[in-house]
Amino acid sequence: MNKPEKKPNNPQFSSGPCPKRPGWKPAVLEGALLGRSHRSKPGKAKLKEAIEKTRKILAVPAGSRIGIVAGSDTGAVELALWSLLGARGVDLLAWESFSQEWVSDVVDVLGIVDTETHEAAYGELPDLTKVNFKNDVVFVWNGTTSGVKVPNGDWIPNDREGLTICDATSAAFAMELPWDKLDVVTFSWQKVLGGEAAHGVIILSERAVSRLETYVPPRPLPKLFRLTKKGKIDEAIFEGATINTPSMLCVEDYLDALNWASSIGGLESLISRSQSNLSVIEGWIDKTGWVDFLAKSSESRSNTSICIKIIADWFVSLSKERQVMITKEIAGLLDVEGVAHDIDGYRNAPPGLRIWGGATVERSDLEALLPWLDWAYETVSTKYL
Question: Which of 190, 193, 323, 341 is in the most buried spot, having the most CB atoms within 10 Å?
Answer without folding.
Answer: 193
